[in-house]
Amino acid sequence: MQSAVCPGSFDPLHNGHVEIIARASNLFDEVIVAVSANMNKRPRFSLEQRIEMARETFSYVRGVSVVALSHGLLVDFCREVGANAVVKGLRDDRDLLYETPMATMNRHLSGLETVFLPADGRYSHLSSTLVKEVHDLGGDISECVPRAVQRRLTESLR
Ligand code: PNS
């Protein structure tokens, strides 16, 4: 069985993430979405909320599960869950520059491979930061995020 980990902060999950995870689930028997605590980034949503939104979104997708990546190295997490690879989406050359050293370090540390999937053009402008900003300033992000996320974003402004 081939399994992959899709790691990220997902603060919050947007449709670009959803599309990459769905494509990963076509390539691997099992996909584990690993939601990073990532306290360096001062997330808008708690780890529990980010996990809940992702679980709700993928509840209908076979072979996709959502868990916390609360501490330690990604390579150790992947070994613990028996994953063969990490899958990441690339929107542009900045993503490539950001992701390549991490992919190379992970391979150096444990031989873990990273598979990069090019973002679909419909989603390559999306980022969690932009989604939050546009939403907070009154813009319509209904086509940018899953329902579970839109609801939580609206609640977070109340
Ligand atoms: O959504 P992000 O913030 O780009 O996700 C980054 C993430 C979670 C993939 C990265 O921070 C990570 O791998 N964290 C686990 C700690 C680790 O292994 N660090 C060394 C990476 S080479």
TrEMBL record:
- The residue ranges crossing the membrane are none
Q: Which reaction does it catalyse?
A: (R)-4'-phosphopantetheine + ATP + H(+) = 3'-dephospho-CoA + diphosphate
Stretches assigned to coiled coil = none
Q: Which cofactor does it need?
A: Mg(2+)
Q: Which InterPro entries match?
A: Cyt_trans-like, PPAT, Rossmann-like_a/b/a_fold
- Which Gene Ontology cellular component terms are annotated? cytoplasm
The source's superkingdom equals: Bacteria
State the pathway, as annotated in the record. Answer: Cofactor biosynthesis; coenzyme A biosynthesis; CoA from (R)-pantothenate: step 4/5
- Residue span, Cytidyltransferase-like domain: 5-133
- Residues flagged as site, Transition state stabilizer: H17
Q: What's any GO biological process attached to this entry?
A: coenzyme A biosynthetic process
UniProt binding sites for substrate: S9, K41, L74, K88
Single Gene Ontology MF annotation: ATP binding
EC number assigned by the record: 2.7.7.3
Localization recorded for this chain is:
Cytoplasm
Which purpose does this protein serve, as stated in its record?
Answer: Reversibly transfers an adenylyl group from ATP to 4'-phosphopantetheine, yielding dephospho-CoA (dPCoA) and pyrophosphate.
* Family to which this protein belongs: Belongs to the bacterial CoaD family.
Query: What does the record note on quaternary structure?
Result: Homohexamer.
What's the name of the protein? Answer: Phosphopantetheine adenylyltransferase
Protein species of origin: Candidatus Nesterenkonia stercoripullorum
Name the gene for this chain. coaD
